[in-house]
Amino acid sequence: AVVSTQSTGKSNWISDMTWLNLVELSKIPQFSEILSQVSRNEKTWKQWYDGDAPEEGIIPDGYQNSLDVFKRLLLIRSWCPDRTIAQARKFVVDALGQKFADGVILDFHTMWGES
Questions:
Q1: Which of 62, 63, 71, 66 is nearest to 94 (CA)?
Q2: pTM, whole model, 2 decimals?
Q3: 64 phi, psi to nearest 5 deg
Q4: What is d(CA 111, CA 37) in angstroms, rounded to the nearest whole number?
Q5: pLDDT, tens digit, for every residue of 45-74?
Q6: For residue 59, which of 2, 63, 91, 106 is within the disulfide window of CB 3.0 to 4.6 Å?
Q7: CB under 8 Å to 39, separation ≥6 — which residues?
Q8: If we measure between CA atoms, which residue out of 107, 30, 114 comes closest to residue 68?
Q9: CB-CB contact of 48 with 60 (8 Å)
Q10: Could you tell me the maximum CA-CA distance found in the chain, to the nearest angstrom?
Q11: Residue 46 has what DSSP assignment?
């Protein structure tokens, strides 16, 4: 099967994989215009994408205030797979509570005794 990047409007700084992710994301009603938004507002999207922690930045084109934590996770995953864990942690906190996102210090002695 041939996979099209639907590269109309795709800029050189956007990888093919990221563009394919955005094509899939655009199938969700809330993101239906994302491809054209990225093409029209390329400079702002690139500044957001180039940030150290895009998941902490202000998402362009009104997405900052319109996305719940899960849809924000989908957007971060589509653009920046390396930042997915940070956003997933926020989703877990939102859905289940802080205690489920906090790190746990392993007690190997107790674990060994329970095994």
A1: 71
A2: 0.79
A3: -55, -45
A4: 51
A5: 999 999 999 999 999 999 999 999 999 999
A6: 63
A7: 8, 9, 10, 11
A8: 30
A9: yes
A10: 60
A11: H
Of the candidates 63, 64, 3, the residue with the CA atom closest to the CA atom of residue 30:
63
Look-up of token digits 């942690």: 89
E strands along the chain, which residues?
A: none
H/E segment holding residue 69 = helix 69-79
Q: What is the pLDDT of residues 9-29, one digit of tens each?
A: 688 899 999 999 999 999 999
CA distance 60 to 74: 15
Is residue 113 very low, low, confident or very high in pLDDT (cuts 50, 70, 90)?
confident
User: Token digits for 82?
Assistant: 């390396």
From the list 70, 74, 44, the residue with the least C-alpha distance to 59 is: 44
Distance CA 96, CA 61 (A): 29
